[in-house]
Amino acid sequence: SDNKAAIARGGGVPRCVELLASGTIVAKELAAGALANLAVNSDIRVTIVETGGIPRFVELLASGTLVAKENAARALWNLTADSDNEGAIAKAGGIPPLVELVASGTDIAKHNAAAALANLAVTADHKVAIAKAG
Q: Where would I find the H helices in 11-106?
């Protein structure tokens, strides 16, 4: 949409990625939610990945609040729309915390994590990693 493009043009994506690491608890939740919404746009997905979003989302899966985990899992799910990002998510250690979230997260987090894992499971190596993590 026009709003997503305006946010991206205005430098909102790198600022939100930065907040994932250095923001307050609430700022991390909101930034993860904003980036998850923005990640439905393929051009913005590229910017999220290029600015270090994937490892930040993985960190939130492990140490964020319940809301941050829900939003981080949704962002990773949206990022898996580009198969190139699947390997980056696995390499960043994203599979074990996604599997953990399916087991112990909120209903929303379970849904988002399961959807991300479903997309990751298309690749044989990721299937193995998912099985080992679970």
A: 12-22, 25-38, 42-50, 53-63, 66-79, 83-91, 95-104
